[in-house]
Amino acid sequence: MAEQQYSAKANEILNAAELRMRQGGFDAVSYRDLAAAVGIKASSVHYHFPQKADLGRAVVERYTAKLLAFLGQADDPADSAETRVQKLCAAYQHALIHEEVPCLCCVLGAESLDLPPVVCQAVGKFFEQMIHWTATALLANSEASGNGAGSSPSDRQAAEVLARHIISTLQGTMITALTLQDTKVLTDAEPFLLRLVRAKDV
Amino acid sequence: MAEQQYSAKANEILNAAELRMRQGGFDAVSYRDLAAAVGIKASSVHYHFPQKADLGRAVVERYTAKLLAFLGQADDPADSAETRVQKLCAAYQHALIHEEVPCLCCVLGAESLDLPPVVCQAVGKFFEQMIHWTATALLANSEASGNGAGSSPSDRQAAEVLARHIISTLQGTMITALTLQDTKVLTDAEPFLLRLVRAKDV
DNA sequence: GTCTATAATTTGATAGAC
DNA sequence: GTCTATCAAATTATAGAC
Q1: CA-to-CA distance for A193 and B189, rounded, in angstroms?
Q2: With a 7 Å cutoff on the CB, does A147 touch strand C?
Q3: Which residue lies nearest D1, CA-to-C1' measured?
Q4: Does the pTM of the predicted model rise above 0.85?
């Protein structure tokens, strides 16, 4: 969790690279365009990120850390499972509606089969961590309530399955929202997901 | 619905282009690679598809027609809404598990913001037609059963929302399945979706 | 329909000066 | 850290012969 992990200029480059990747995928990023976006030359961008695959990995890792930081502790006792999933939905809605680009790992995940290995691994780790956060968010609730024994292995497994489903649905709705140019698909998903969260507790 | 819309060689090219696009997106396709795949030269591929955007559009349109043909009539009275959604799930499972590549429009949809306009429009049309098929599949059931009045406008709207959600979820689970290298995410989605279909009828 | 040849551009990446 | 200069390779696309 070291702050200032990248220099100010390196962060500018990562910002520009993240935006382009979220618009058009890994191949949409070029050193020339990044250079122009941050006011230096392409060879100077290579100084900060020698290989494009390393740049890609850095973008994904920073993105993952940012999103998890926004979501906060998955087992914050102040929240219910429903509230936590709402927070997750809000994060995805903010990305598409206000930043006007889909989730980075939605775009990169779709081209997984053609991604440089280090980038592909970073995307895989993003999904693992997001699913872990969500599964914990679903479970922490039932632990806090009545039955003090914590969550059983089968509870954990059910939460994992539901968490994967929730993350997947959010990614998919972003794609449909993009193609139909209508963010309603994404906001409409929230009640469907919350229904599943509630059904799980019953 | 003209048969033989493309020559045999053009179809070979479309096959190769579809595979590459489903692996790595629109930019992953190159005339050189396509030429090598079908045993001719790049300039000869240009004879069949002068512009790359046209090639992309053709791939998407043929893909859309193929999938809709496989799904068949959305209001076949022999099936229930549940059976029809199962058929839809089966189509997506077949793509990922047996063809070992995700849905073409999952990949292209994710890079919508950077696609040539004609390709983007074709992808949008794919989603519209898939959602229309699914909404009809959901409604045809309640029409066939007891209340002979057909579906009310609010029924149609609810079916549209659910249809968009189902299509979106299938796309999203493909992405997660790819990144986790585990097709279970996709097969696990089916019971969640069928639950929503059943809940709608109650 | 397919070929050779070629054009014009873009790409990721490196060497070396300042 | 940033620059100029340069490279080798790949890209879409066209002209014209067969």
Answers
A1: 12
A2: no
A3: A44
A4: yes
